Amino acid sequence: MVARRAPVARAGVRVGKRGRCKAIARRCGATPCYHPAAARARPADPMADSQTPYRKHNSFVEIRQRRAPPEARARLEKVRAAATDMGLSPDAAALVRRACDEALGRATASAPHQPFTLQANVVEEIGRLTDAEIPRYLHYRYRYEVYPDRRLLDDYPPCLQIEPTSSCNFRCVFCYQTDKPFTARKNGHMGVMPLDLFKRVVDQAQGHVEAVTLASRGEPTLCPHLDKMLAYAAGKFLGLKVNTNASLLTEALCHALLAADVNTLVFSADAADETAYRKLRVGGDLRKVLENVKRFHDIRRRDYPASRLITRVSGVKVPGAGELNDMERFWGDYVDQVAFVNYNPWENAYEAPPTAIAAPCSDLWRRMFIWWDGRANPCDVDFKSTLSVGDAARQDLSALWRSGPYETLRRDHLEARRGSRHPCARCSVV
Ligand code: SF4
């Protein structure tokens, strides 16, 4: 429950007499308002301070898993012993051995860096892999977690987010889909990725990138050929992930997701009751979403008993979101994990007050986004792509990842010039 406080005026936030956010009063209707902009107007709120760094390397507030994580140490011991005989290049084998050593506590990282550790969700993912797949997984996971912290780069991003479409049927209060100039068709941000472009990106990523997420600014199930994209990506990545609001999850799409051996399917939801859900997920219907998630669960159990998929209900921890215990009670029978991630002010990156954060943004070493039209971007906080680093329709992924604009942006962050870049100066991601 959000405590009432006297309204406090701050740049970019319109607050009425009773602390009610005027900007979205028509949508929200709550006093106090659940809108993050209003939340930021309450300085005592821990989420109110836009100066607080948003630590991207672990954005989970909390995660609960249905199964106890399986034992992974013994398997890592085996992988470490056999790393040189598993068909890896000498460099990759050395990296896998290093990952095992750090995870097993036999090697540490030099300060101020953290050693690679096995978080519960990582152990769960390892538990679903064959022994032969674990080196590939560790090679990706170590680069995903450790490289951004140590500012290391190689030829491909540890993670690639491909956007099937930028459109969404929801207007969640914390999301940039509430930005009208962004969603206005005439401004050119809305569209669907052509299948040929998707295949080109997948072909280049295969064998170099293991974590591929089909989602970014829009709702992927709105893409009319998502089923074909899934079929094309099937079996090519160890970390194929899809994020969806589950409102349009038809029976056919359930089969397409399961047949493609997607590794992680995230259902975005932040509440366990209809009133709270509607206030946050504007345009959504909790009853319908629950029906769809249940149906997915039933199809999986009935037709794909050997599926290795991990399903997760994941919410954004904003005022008005449910408590994790309630979420677990509501969703827990139908998914493997229930989690909350920290709120990041995605919806107004361009208008937020400048921060005093000087630390570099770790995502510049972690992931790259390919928008529906091929535009490559370093993040989706910059949802209007002012930081674009190139075009995947014309340039190769590796060339984009190490392109001049990307390297300049990284250097600006490393050399304390983050404040000179827009919208990095107003963004709290580190
Ligand atoms: S806007 Fe800049 S600081 Fe924020 S996530 Fe994007 S690249 Fe990182």
3D structure, described in words:
The chain is α/β, with parallel strands linked by helices. The chain has helices at about 25-30, 35-40, 75-80, 90-105, 120-125, 135-150, 180-185, 195-205, 225-235, 250-260, 275-280, 285-305, 325-330, 395-400, 405-415; strands at about 60-65, 160, 210-215, 240-245, 265-270, 310-315, 335-340, 365-370, 375, 390. Strands 1-7-6-5-4-3-2-8-9-10 form a ten-stranded mixed beta sheet, sandwiched between helices. Iron/sulfur cluster binds near residues 363, 379 and 381.
Salient structural properties:
alpha/beta, single chain, 430 residues, disordered N terminus, binds iron/sulfur cluster, globular, 10 strands
Task: Please outline what is shown here.
By secondary structure, this protein is of the alpha/beta class. The protein has helices at 25-28, 36-40, 73-82, 90-103, 120-127, 134-150, 180-183, 195-205, 226-233, 251-259, 274-280, 286-303, 324-331, 397-401, 404-414; strands at residues 60-65, 159-162, 211-214, 239-244, 264-268, 310-317, 337-342, 367-370, 375-377, 390-391. A ten-stranded mixed β-sheet has the order 1-7-6-5-4-3-2-8-9-10, with helices on both faces.
